[in-house]
Please model this.
Amino acid sequence: MEQYAAWKALIVAGEETSVWQKAYVFFYQAFIENDRWQQYLNGVGTTLLVTLLALLLGVVLGVLVAVVRTAHDQQRPGKHNPVLGFLNAIMRVYVTVIRGTPMMVQLMIMGFVIFASSRDFVTVGALTLGINSGAYTAEIIRGGLMSVDIGQMEAGRSLGLNYADTMRFIIIPQAIKAILPSLGNEFIVLLKDTSLISVIGGKELLYAARGVVSRTYEPMYPYVGTAVIYLALVMVFTWLLGIFERRLRASDRRS
Model:
């Protein structure tokens, strides 16, 4: 601590200091002084919470939209359910609007217009990210469902299964193995997109780094440190996804 104070005084006074001394001072004030590492830790906790909530919402929305759109597209010729057609039209508008507008704009609309009176920025951010992710997840899942041979659906129906059971027990298990890499990429993008909620006041990892920069007036170490933390989180997530994929392949070999 005394060494840090002495070297910092030299830097403030404009005295000549070594690269190592400057690095030590900037690192210390970015992560250690006043227990600032706790701000990053709290930011990581919020980032993971928002990612989890948005992930759950995105998967639920994605599966719902994908199943409805797939069911509509796979109707037999001459047989069109009007209710299914109406729901499909709504789903198409949802996917088109969400995928056609920037995430930042969606966050600002949700944070400053729709939920302007709310101070729960984390929940608003998670809701927005989940709705956004749902549109992309829906197209990924729909592509996987449509890639399964139509004969699989016909075989399930011929065995007496209804549409829902055929999708649950036959189509979806096959589709998951095909879409898992794409879903993994979408979830990684979602994790990194949590940094955007800082624009509406969400106190996640980037928000913590910006707070440190506003106090130290030295941006390199807080922002580079934030990038390293995000990289570590993505690497852990990728590792877990790889384990899941290997277990799926192992179950295929056993079966």
Q: What stands out?
A: The CA atoms of residues 52 and 85 lie 32 Å apart.
